[in-house]
Each structure stands twice: as C-alpha cells, then as structure tokens.
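ping. complex inputs:
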Amino acid sequence: MWNQVKQSLQSSMGRAMESLARLLPGILAFIVALLLFLFIGWILAWVVRRILAAVGFDQRMSRSAPTMADWSPRLTPSQLVGRVVFWCFFTAGVMVGVSAFEAGSTEHVVSGWILAYVPHIIGAAVLLLAGNVLARYVSRSVLIAGVNLNLSYARLLSIGVRWMILVLTGAMVLDHLDLGSNIVELGFGILFGGIVLSLALAVGLGSRDLVSRSLEREASRVVEEQQPERIHHF
Amino acid sequence: MAGIEFSEETRQQAERIGSPDIVVGVAGPVTPDELRSRAQSVLGLLGPTFSSLRFVFAWPSPAAEAPAASLAADQPAALTFFPFSFPAHAAGELWAGVSAQQRAVLGLASQLNARCCIVLGPDLAALQPHPLQLFAYAVLERQCGLVMPLYNTGKYDGLINNGILAPLGRALYGRRIRFPLAFDFAASGAMCARMARIESHQNNHGGTSLLWPATVAATQSSQTAVGQAHLDVRHQVASGGLDLSAVLAQIVGSLFQEMESCAAHWQRVRGSQPVPVWGAAPAEPPDGETVDTRPMLDSFLLGSRNLDEVWRLVLPPNTLLELRRLTKLAPEEFRMPDELWAGIVYDFALAYRLRTLSRAHVLGALTPLYLGWVASYIREVSTLSHADAELRLEQLARAWEEKKPYLLSRWRWPDRFNP
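pong. complex structure:
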C-alpha cells in the first residue's frame, strides 16, 4: 500500500512539475517583455522630459493651466507627462507580457480574461490616484480656511472631509473593479448614511447647547466688529 | 505704446484733446459732478505757477455711461474733464480693481503724451492743492520719474505695508519706499508708458497681478529718479466686509510673483538707499486707543496647533522651533524677533516659487503668522510715540536687509535645503 501511495505522490509531483515546466516559458516571456517595456518607457520618459524642458513647457503650462500645478505641486508638468509616458509603457508591457504568456501556454481563457480586466485595473488606479490627490487638496484647503476663520475644530473638519472623500473613492474603485458590487454598495450606503445621520443627530440633539453657544458667540462677535476698527491692515 | 486697449471713441477724444501738461486720473468710480466741482476749486488755489499748465481730469467710466470729453463750462481750455470707457471691476477684489484702473489712467496719460500723470484714489482724499503741487513740482521741476506718497498714518495703520510690503520691497530693490502700494502717486510721461505696457495677468491662484510702481521704476529703468512726497491724507478703506486672508493672499501673492519675474534684478542689489522727500512732514496723528492683541494671538496659536503639518513643508526646523517657543510665552511676553519674521516671509516666498505646495495654500498658511507678527508689533509700539514707532519700523527694515543673503542662497540653491 505504501508503494502505491509513494507512486501516487511521485506521479502527482511529476504532473505538477510538468505543468510548471509548461508555464515557465510563458512566465519568463512575460518577465522579459515587461522588463523590456519598462526600460523603453524609462528611456522615452527621460527623452520626453528633456524635450519639454527645452521648449519651456513648464512655463507655458503655468501661465495657461495654473490649476494643474496646484493639484500636484511637487511635480512639474513635464515630470507629470514623463510619468504618464512611463506608466503607459508599463501597461503596454503588461499586456504584451500577458500575450507572450498566452503564446507559451495552452490555456487561452486566462489571458483573454486578464486582457479584458486590464482596463478596469487602469481605471481603478486612475480613480484611486485622483481620489487621493483630491482628498489631500480639499482637506488641506478646509484646514487652512478653518484656521483662518478661527474655527477651533478646523482639524477635525479637515480629517472628516479627507476620510469622506477617501471612503467615496474606495467605494468607486471597488465598484469599478467589480469586486463584491452589492456588498460594497450596501456597505457604502450604510456607512455614508450613518455618518450623515450621526452628524444630524449630534447637531440636532446632542450638541444643541454647543451649537446655540457657538451661534451666540458668532452673533456677539458680529456686534463687536461693528465698532470702529482700531487697527487697519491696509 | 500703451498696453491698455481703449475704445475707438476714447482714442478719438484723446486725439482731439491733444497733449496736456498734467493728467490727473482717478483710479476708480467717482461722481462726475463732485469731481468737477472739487477740481475747479482746487485748481483755483494752486497758484500762479500752475496757471499756464494744461490739466486733464480723467476717470474710468463703464462704456454705456461715458459721455464725451467736455471743456469746463467756466474755465479756459486749460481744464478738460475726460471720462473714458473702461469696464467696471468685480466687487470684492479691492486692490485688483484699483491696480487695473491705475494702469488704465497711466495708459491714457501715455496716449495723451502728458508730461506728468497724477493718479488719485477714488475717494478723492488727495485731491487737494498741496498734494497736487508737490507731485507736479517733483515730476516737472525736479525731473523725478516716479513720486510715491508718504502718508500720515498712525501706528496701527497699514500693517500689511509695515510688516511685509515696505521692508521686503526695500530689501529687494534697494530703495527706501515707505508705501510701495499706494492709492496716490505721480509719474513722468516716460514712466507712464512703461507702467501701462505691463500687462495685467492672472496669477496662479486666481487673483489678478497688481501694479507695483516702485518695482517698475527699479527694474525697468534703474536710472529713473524715485522720490516721495509728504501727503497729509488718510484713506479710509472699508475693510469690514473684506476677508483678511483673501486680501493678504492677493497682495502678498502678487508681490511674490513680482519677485519671481524680477529675480535677475534684485539678486544684484545690496543694501538700500534713501530717496528724496518733498514737502514738510505733517503733524503726528493722535495715538490710538490701546489695542487688545488677544484675538490676533489666539489666531496665531490656533494656526500653530493646526497648521504645523503645512508649516513643516515651508519652514526650516530652527524656525519651527522658534515658533514653538513663542507659543509657550505668556501674552505679555510675546515678541516675534525681526530676523524670525523676515526669515518666515522669505521662506514663504521660496515655497511660492518652488510650489512646495499649492500656492493658494502657501498664502493661506501665512495669515496666522502675520497675525502673530501684528500682535508682537502692536505690543511693542503701544507705549512708543509715533516717531519712535517709525524708528522701530526702520529697525525692522534693516533686519530684512541683513537677512537677504539667506534668501539669496536659498533662491539660487533650493535643493540644498528641503524640509
């Protein structure tokens, strides 16, 4: 009996190794294609950045499209274009690599499914990036505006805004990836609705006195400001 | 050639008027009847020296309302009133609107080939015999290209100017101009043409760039003589409805933008020189009542608690430590050293240029620090006389000049320091 067990194990190991050996060329082809496209993308991104710097692209963009620099202040427009070029070649490398894997494999269904899913991944990545950038910009804007309005809860407001945008972004990304769509929709609805309902209850019931005191303070501050100004900033 | 585009009707009227000696332009909406009556009474008091000069009083008027230029009914051809077509500026942008209309007045004076252009604020506070005499004398007799005003302000007036505009302009361009951004100033014909050619453009955080006459004089024609004239004039700016943060962002943002565009010039300037002053200094204004600095201090402390993550992107560690030390001081001991304040503004100018973060955020984050400086300044000068307060501002300006090498090194080699 042990001999039969041993033979079964050996034959299954042999089949597994054989399957792996059949997949290895495809995997290697995928890695080589990806590395090749990464290298080409890196070279082209560098060339594009040099060309754009030579034609003064950054200066022209800062004059005609100032908001672009505000959304992504650390990267110049030419650096952004370079990164877009690089990641386009990375994506192309992944797709070529998957085709190369398909060529070296007998299973065509897998590559077809992956190729059909790549646009969803790209869209989700773009959504995630945009959501993060938006969350950072808006939360910082709320924080600075809140401080300049002398709101003691400016930081809390900023954190709340950031997390609301991130939660919304996460739900959109998962929806775009078609992952647990009903659960995600339901969960997001419950979470968002719960947050809004909690805020409404807190303001309406729990913070009634705080809100009335805050409003009274604001009203009395308005009365004080009607007195002649003793200092003039300009 | 003026950079301002006037309507065909305005150009034709300008040709009919010819070349006056002095154009007195009002940079803002004005009641025509009030302007006419005051102009006629002021000209009557100017004296015999001015009787041979030809005056044109001009003001911008929305296109639908601009009547034809008219000779004053009971005056010889030496006095002409010229409302010219110019679109009204959006409300809420105080200095943007004033700057646009100042450019328009200068452009008109250039179009008319005037020898001298006197720009007045829309409240007509400077439409008096003495200011007009001083301006005209400095430009026509003393060949001064630009004459800026020396307003008779109190200790607690013009704080943005005292804390940022004047010391920064002096350190950068080497001329001791007390009020670099003013409602009233005078310019020669050549200077009018230069200032009118500078195009107004949108800056990167949505505001409109302002006109900085002293910067134009310093950078576009370093040989232009610049002077100052004592004006016993007080402009009442209705600041109640304006947001300090927005106005600070507009003014300081425009100044930072000028720094960037004129970098090749101010990096060569060392120290500063006084400029000629005309007119006698008026009597000191009465000291105001004691000011409670607590609200400003609270704003500074609130900013230090909440904006640390933003300030960390702009300011070096030693500055942040200094600010943290200031937050621990008692209100009666609160004092922001001049070198620290100069360094902070220089660091913010650098962050604006390098786009360390969004420019709107850079300017917004400056407001609590500015209020901290105001609280410190008010506490220091509250027991000083007006003259001693001016000396205190002179001390502040010198500190900015001494800190300039720091700005130069960080401007030229930004990668050496990256907070």
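The first strand of chain B starts at residue 22 and ends at 26.
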